[in-house]
Amino acid sequence: MFNHSKYYLLLVLGATFYFTGCQAGGEWAGREYMPDMAHSNAYEYYSPERPIVIDGETVVLSPDGMSARQPAKGTVPRGFSPYPFEDTPEGYEQAGAELFNPMNGKHAKSAADGKNLYITNCAICHGEKGDGQGEIVKNGKYPGGPPSYFIDRFLEMPEGKMFHSMQYGKNNMGSYAGQLNKEERWKIVSYIKDMQAASIASSKKVTKDEALKLITGRLTYKDVATYTSAGAKPAAPAANTTDTTKVQANAAAPKKGGK
Ligand code: HEC
């Protein structure tokens, strides 16, 4: 007898749950049991603000109705350092003249790290060797791909300009500021300069180290000539480019910056 009524009660309860609980449809969202887990007190992403009532008074925290707030004016997140140059031709020139690679003291390590980052992020267009023959350029999916890093304009490009172009993007190339932090971007610059120096060293009579100093703007072609004690004069670079003056101008008067 007792046992029977227990089963009967279970049956009634089960049927009640079955018929009232799960029949969402149309305008009826169904009944919720223990809804406190389903509806968060915290704001969902991008949800509108809910007015809150404090001591019987409705308080509006956000005049524009958005729950996501802008940071207070003039503040920056912890650990963030602002980028001082604007996305303008002037900002580009200024970056070229005033921004130097902080990784240059540990170039070898920086370039080695930069290589991995470069292969992951840049090689698809610029090519693993930097010749502008990345996969999507070769298969025709990206017409008007980038030039090779080994044309004069890129060889003499100050590292600050390279960094600037990664910060904001450049024509067909998007910005990398969201994907790569500053240190990573500088490491990639180290790697590009490393590839360029190796290329100069292979075709001209300077060592890779000298070539590196030359193209990062800390030596001029003239300096390199005096450095090459073995008598291997770097006649070729001076003769076949007009960069000499620009590189020298860069070193002497950085404000002017080569284009
Ligand atoms: C989707 C293809 C693509 C990818 C990926 C790409 N680039 Fe480029 N990049 C270009 C193109 C195209 C140009 C030439 C832009 C122009 O018209 O001046 C360019 C130009 C450049 C320049 C020269 C900018 C200047 O100031 O003239 C640098 C430096 C450069 N890229 C570095 C990088 C680095 C570093 C990465 C990876 C973090 C990268 N690029 C990824 C397409 C790409």
| Mean pLDDT over the full residue set | 80
Helix segment count?
A: 12
**CATH structural architecture of the domain at 89-256:** Orthogonal Bundle
What is the CATH T-level topology of the domain at 89-256?
Answer: Cytochrome Bc1 Complex, Chain D, domain 2
CATH class of the domain at 89-256: Mainly Alpha
Strand order, sheet with most strands: 1-2
Report the major sheet.
2 strands, antiparallel
Unreliable segments of 5+ consecutive residues: 220-259
Oligomer: single chain
Strand content: under 5%
The ordered H/E elements are HEEHHHHHHHHHHH
Provide the helix percentage: 40-55%
Describe this structure in words.
The chain has about 260 residues and is an all-alpha fold. It has twelve helices and two strands. The chain has a two-stranded antiparallel sheet. Helix 3 crosses helix 8 and helix 8 crosses helix 9. The longest helix is centred in the last third of the chain and has 22 residues. Bound molecules: heme C. Heme C (HEC) binds next to helix 4 and helix 7. The site of heme C has 18 residues, from helix 4 and helix 7.
Identify the notable features of this structure and list them briefly.
259 residues, mainly alpha, Cytochrome Bc1 Complex, Chain D, domain 2, 12 helices, 2 strands, binds heme C
